[in-house]
């Protein structure tokens, strides 16, 4: 393949992913495992629940004593003790006896059933049972949830809040997870000023570094925000060398026609392995990708929207592969849904249009933002999805299109 030829987005994604390897494992405190991939099987050291316990506030008793109980003809039992949660009953429940028991407390020996307090009537220690529930009613059995020795979470599990809860229950305060990449973010351009600098005529604020750092955080990487590199060979070279502290390098700007040769020269001089430049997509055409000392280097376009869209299509999957996410879960999730406004892709590159997705009556709808220019920062506002339009594709409201999902779709 001629590397200077414009690639399809799929070809470019494949080349990027072919050069990404999982970064390896580190041990972290439990909360830092959130949204990461577990690197070892986690086994239970004991049963959960650890013993048979009560699911209700009520009376622990022997089912054979209450088989025929009803409101008209209650079974009458003698209460022998009270067992609050966190305590173990001291007495076995014998025939004609019962123990008052709280939710979560261990069911005492002898008892096999708990009758909720609302189905009973107490007069001192004399307890009337007004309803015969089934045997073992309201008893949570030892090991019903987790059995000692079983693999509760296998290596490769994605750790969400539910997984963290179980890991806490299993007393895993530290655990091995897959590393997430650090990502150096470097904005280039003589026109840029930092966020708090005075804005002289002709200058623009460096917003990309913040947008890309936010994307990095949102998609599982650790951003390292570097100072602006000026449009000179010396400055760029120094900045890129500094960026080599990270696992991945992202630069924005300096890769469109005109500037391209010069950033390319710096990377060539540093011995980088060129992989591709330019992808047949809009926005995001002038994407540059190489390996620098074996590290993935993404030269993102300078236009704010283009750089964010390139991030989502190429950097996000790379972050996920480096963090050992499963192969089927690297690209953005896709769906079919109906457009709410007419759209036409007149060009010869695939369009990625920022959109607001919503559910209505069980159907997914996408409404694209009015201004889709790659300089229009506002086109990213509230965007939770992308409408993907092929060249020459024309759609009317209600027509189904391919969608990519960036954020959760509410409503
Ligand atoms: P470039 O790819 O360097 O030619 O930049 C394309 C456009 O994106 C120009 O209008 C730049 O001013 C703008 N741009 C480049 N870098 C940034 C940045 N870090 N923050 C905001 N806009 C930028
Ligand atoms: Mg520039």
Helix-strand category:
alpha/beta
| Strand arrangement, major sheet | 7-4-6-5-9-8
Which outline best applies?
A: elongated
Q: Please state the average pLDDT score.
A: 94
Rg on CA atoms, Å: 31 Å
The major beta sheet can be summarized as:
6 strands, mixed
The set of bound ligands, ions and cofactors reads: adenosine monophosphate, magnesium ion
Strand content: 25-35%
- Counting H and I runs of at least 4 residues, what is the number of helices? 6
Q: Poorly predicted ranges (pLDDT <50, ≥5 residues)?
A: none
Rounded to the nearest angstrom, the distance between the terminal CA atoms is: 46 Å
Helix percentage = 10-25%
Oligomer: single chain
Q: Could you outline the blueprint of secondary structure elements for this entry?
A:
Layout: H1 9-18, E1 25-29, E2 42-43, E3 53-54, E4 58-61, E5 75-83, E6 97-101, E7 113-116, E8 120-123, E9 126-129, E10 139-140, E11 151-153, H2 161-169, E12 174-178, E13 182-187, E14 192-193, E15 204-205, H3 208-218, E16 222-225, H4 233-243, E17 248-252, H5 260-269, E18 273-277, E19 281-282, E20 288-292, E21 295-300, H6 304-322, E22 334-339, E23 343-344, E24 350-360, E25 363-368, E26 385-389, E27 394-395, E28 400-405
Parallel strand pairs: 5-6, 13-16, 13-17, 14-15, 17-21, 19-24, 22-25
Antiparallel strand pairs: 1-12, 2-11, 3-10, 4-6, 4-7, 5-9, 8-9, 18-20, 20-21, 22-28, 23-27, 24-25, 24-26, 26-28
